[in-house]
Amino acid sequence: MPIVVNLDVMLARRKMQLQELAEKVDITIANLSVLKTGKAKAVRFSTLEAICKALNCQPGDILEFVEEEE
What positions does the domain HTH cro/C1-type occupy (predicted)? Predict the structure, then answer.
């Protein structure tokens, strides 16, 4: 998939655990884990906004478009 989720990178930069983020954004760890592993098919803007607020970052820090090689 050409959209890469860099949630694990941002968590490491902020020295924050997934559980702490889940508590701050009021989302289950299971749902955040799906997003973190890139298995999510979509993300709500409200969820992305809450994550960015908790991690003090921009949406582009979390989501990245990577061109697929042919």
Answer: 13-62
**16-51 pLDDT, tens per residue?**
999 999 999 999 999 999 999 989 999 999 999 999
CATH 3.20.170.30, domain 3-56, yes or no: no
Residue labelled with tokens 């979390």: 62
Helix/strand/coil for 15: coil
What sign does the CA torsion over 46, 50, 56, 57 have? negative
Q: At a CB cut-off of 8 Å and minimum separation 6, what does 14 contact?
A: 55, 56
Position of tokens 């884990």?
Answer: 33
